[in-house]
Structure formats: structure tokens, C-alpha cells
Amino acid sequence: MSASNPASGQVPVPPPPVSTGQVPAGWPPGYPPPAGWPQGYPLPAMAVPPGWPPGYPPPAHAFPPQPPPGWPEGYPYPPTGTGSVPVMLPPPGSGPVPVLPPPSVSGPTPTMAAAASASRPVQVVTAAEPLLGEGEIFHPPAATYIEEAKPPHPFVKLWRQMGGSSLTLSVAIHAAILVIALYVVVSERYFEKEVDFLPGGGTAQGAAASAEMKHQVQQKKRTSLNKAMPMKKIVSNSMTSEVTLPEAPPDLLDVPDVSSMLGGGGGLMGSGGFGKAGSGGGFGTGMGIGGAAGFVSLPPSMRSRCSSAERLQKLAQNGGTSECERAVSQSLEWLKNKQNPDGSWGRSNKAAYTGMVLLCYLGRCETPDSPFYGDNVMKGILYLIELAQKNPHGAFTEDFAGNAGAYEHGIATYALGEMYTLARLGSKSLPGMREAFEKGVELIIKCQNGKDAGRAEGSWDYYTKNLAAGNATSKREDLSVAGWQYQALKAAKNTGLKINGLNSAIDKCVAYIERLQTKDGGIGKEKRDEHYNQYSLTGAGVLGLQTLGKANKKSTINKGIKFLRDFLTAEPLDWNKNCNLYCWYYYTQAFFQQGGDDWKFYNEQLLPQILSAQQPDGSFKPGRANWPAGDARDEIYRQALCTLQLEVYYRYLKVADRDEESFFDR
Length: 666
What we know:
Elements: H1 154-161, H2 164-190, H3 204-220, H4 222-228, H5 308-317, H6 322-336, H7 350-362, H8 374-390, H9 404-422, H10 433-446, H11 463-468, H12 479-495, H13 502-515, H14 534-548, H15 554-570, H16 581-594, H17 596-612, H18 635-646
Helix pairs in contact: 6-18, 7-8, 7-9, 7-18, 8-10, 9-10, 9-12, 10-12, 12-13, 12-14, 13-14, 14-15, 14-16, 16-17, 16-18
């Protein structure tokens, strides 16, 4: 299409819009199109100054240039400030008006060719065919492409509608609070603060921390104490003076915080052991009373053993020394290393020896919760429980048909009774112990001699042997066997368990012991050459009356103590002459319970002898006995008897110190 001549007076028709919709080169961006220009058509190109390099953008204009008056329409405007028609363009009316070609789709923007002279015609360029249909309006593409958003997942959409974001935030906040609370609880309960001082605030926590730290310090100083303080033997020359031995500072002693109870002493009798034939062999009896403040769940007579401070106090009050406690610690350590893999102690009669060793540990309140000997105590208890479960009668023995069976059962039952009472302080579960103990006590009550036994009523014979033969009781009396049985009954009374026939059995035993007292005041057979004579068994008889009897037994008890004092004055204790540890054990218990001057007299003889007999490894050297049945040849048996005697100062409360008339009048 060609443009019409401006001289004809017709308005030039603009070329049709190109497909690209581009603004002609040189048009200032943002300026409105010329007035009257058809909508959608590309704007005409702006004129450039003469000689302007082709292809370069035109100079910037503050405003679109205005044509001079009478300027032909369609012609490029002259530069601003000039009123003349450019010489490069032909004058109006001298020739055809050049027509601007429409912008090409693919090619460069066309430029107007300037006339070289007035005689040179201007080339006419034919416009390209329009790409838009008639009546269509060109819309240029958007400068920025925005992709349509992907629709959300249905679950996400539902979650947003339900307010899921707020719920998530709330859950996160509560979870954080729970985590913080859990950390506080766990840190308070399981991460205890290390205590590097001895708190003295008087609270339960402070007392526990103080005792634990003191215990640890004592254990660490144990080796240095043994090296720095060799054992010395010091005796008092005065019969009435207090027994005083050199005191080591209490804080240097190895005094564990938990301890064992002692209630019975016993000795192998009959050819120096648990005899299997004849009337020999036997175990003695223990005694007891004690107290310890703070342990309200324990019987008053047993409390002092479970407090290291009170143990030391009782030692000082009752004529002992801190060296006694060190000797006990060494002995318990020695026994620890002698335990068998199955939890027992000893090579034969293991139930008896295991029971005696357990009594040594319990005499210092060393229970299964003990940090030092807890595992040993637990293994020993489990051994006894399993042993009883194998026997149809519930007896604690592997020699059911022999003489030793009655001793073994009485000792083991006594030890489990002590353990049952002390277990109230601990947290360890002891499955089967109560059942085994109750069944053991019931067997002892069942086998006690009845009225048909005459003078032997209330006593016991070798009842496991009799049971094997079909008889539970007999008409034979045996104070040595009876001693361990009433020790077990005493332990049963301490537990508070309701066991049928318990009180009746205790009363019959007390009456039996009274019948054995001689005109000399001793208890047992009068002649010294008889096996169970008053010189060997008065201690066992007196102890039974002190432990089980009523207040009206004081006369009988005092006669027995006088008999023993006269005897020991004539034949003082001597490790190398008359070391009958079975008898000594009963003597120690009976004199301690008597207290006063009688105890001072006896303690002056006993303590130097037994302390000087302990060897560097903690064991006790063999002594020389003058009565074979009172000897302690087996090392475990000897160790247990000596240890129990050293614990006498605190394991039970004295009869004279009790508030009640009898241990069982509570």
C-alpha cells in the first residue's frame, strides 16, 4: 500500500499493524501516540537529525517535536529550533511523498532514506501484508510471565480449613514444655549432685550424703590405716579399771554405713564339728538386744548396728575400741574372698557355715543393698532358699539324715529371720525368702519335744535325722541343738510375722533351760567330764534366759553369771591354752547382756586375746583348745565365731538398757 501525496490534502493512511506490535524505532518510551492515530497500529518512526548514523537511536527529546506551520503531514519534523524545511527532503509538492514501509516481522526496523538531492526520487517501499484479521486488535504480550499456581493437595486444603497451622504451633509449644519438665525430673532423680563435703543441715538428704561420703573416705584410707597403725596388745593390770586400748581417729576407720546383726554364737561340737554320730556335735546360741536411732522400722534391740556413728558410740560405751571395728572390716573382707561360686561358704555343712557368715554381715547391717558386700549377701541368701526348695520338709541342709542337719537348719533359719527384718531398710527383692523362712520356723516348732519327753520337754534332738526315720520328736534333750533353734524363734519374733505356736514354743524352751540349772548355778551336766556339762554350756543357757525370759528370771541368770565368773577367774581365757571358741562365744554374749562390772571383768580378758589373734590378711590364727568339742578347726567357722564376738558391742541392745522387761514383751 502506498501513501497519498500530502499536497492532495488527504490524510495519509498509516501502514497496517505488524504482528510484533513493536513501537517504531526512535519513539520516546512512555509518550502517548499522536492524536488521531488508529488504535492498535504501530506508531511512525521519529525523524533523526541529518547525517545521523543509521541504526543508532535518535537523541532524547523532552517533548515530542511539533511540526512548523504548513508542514506537510507525514513528513519528518525538522530539528527543534529550526523553522526551515530540511534541504535533504524534497519540497512539498515537488514529487511523490515517500511512504514509510511497515515494520518487518523478522527483519530490522526500516529507516527512511534521505534524498541525495532534489532531483533524486524517493523510493517507495511496499508494506508487508498484515498478519491480523480485519477488525482484530493487536495486544502486545505481557512483559512478565506469571505461571498459574498449582492447586494445593486436598489434605493440605482440609488441614488449612481446620486451622491446622494453629494446632501445630500449639502442639509444638506443649511438646517443648513436656521435654523441659521431663529433663528437670530426670536430672533431679537420676543425676545426683556430687557431694564433696559433709552437709550438716539435718535433712534426710544431707544425712544420707554425709554418711555416704564418710563411708567412701573411710574405705579409701583403709590401706594406709593398716600400714600406719600396727596392732598392739595392751592389757589393764587393774581388775576394776576400764578397758582402754589406743583409739584411732574415727574418721580413719573403715566403717561401712551398713551392718549385720548377730544373735547367736555357736560352736561345732562333738569331735570338733557337726558330729554325725553319738551325742557330740552341736551349735550354740546367740543373744541379742540393741538399738539405733532413726531406723523406726527395726526392732529397738537391733537399731544400733545400722548406724556407723552409733556403732562407734556403742563401742566406746561398752568397752570396745575403734580397732574392733577395723578388725571386723578386715574379717568381712576376708570372708568375701572365701565365698563359693554357688553362693555358699565352707566345704561341708555349707548351710551352717553360710548362715553363720551371713550373720556376720548382717551384724554390721550389710544387706543386699550394701555397696561393698551386697552381692555376697544376696548370693548367700539365694543359696539357702534354693537348698530349702529341694527338701520336701523345707529343711536347710544337705545332710538331712545326719546329726548336722538340725544344726544347719537352725542356723540358716536364724540368718534368714535376721535378713527378713533388715530387708525393710532395703530395696532389693528377695523372692521366696519369706516362704522359706516361715516354713523353716514351722519345722522347728513341729520338732520341739513335747510333754511325753519329760525333762527333755521344750528341747530339740537331731530332728532332721528323726524325720528321716519317721519321727519328728524324741525324748532326748540337747542344749547345744536347742541354742540355735531358740535363736531362730527369736528372729521369727522380731519379724512380726504371725506364726502359729511361736509364743508357746518360746515359753517351753525357757522352762526347759531353767530345769537344767545345777545347785552350783551352772546350766548343764554337773560333772566336767560329761559331754554337755555346765562349764561349756552355761553361757548358752544364760543367754537363752536373757533373750527369751521374763523379768522374774533374773535370779536364775545371776546364779549362772556368778558360776561363769568364778570359773573364768580360776581359768582365764587364753588363746594358747583353752581357746574353746564355741564356749567363748556364749560367754561373750551372756556377759555382755549382763553388763556392769561382770562385763568389764570378762571384756578385759577377751578383747586383747581376740585382737592379737588376727593376722595381717584379716583371718584369725588357730588357737589351742582344751575341749575338742569347743574347738574351731575349720577356718570359716573360726572366722565367723571371732567376727560375731567383735560385733557384740553394738549388734544388740543390752537387757539392762531396754525399756521393756523382755525382748518379747513389746
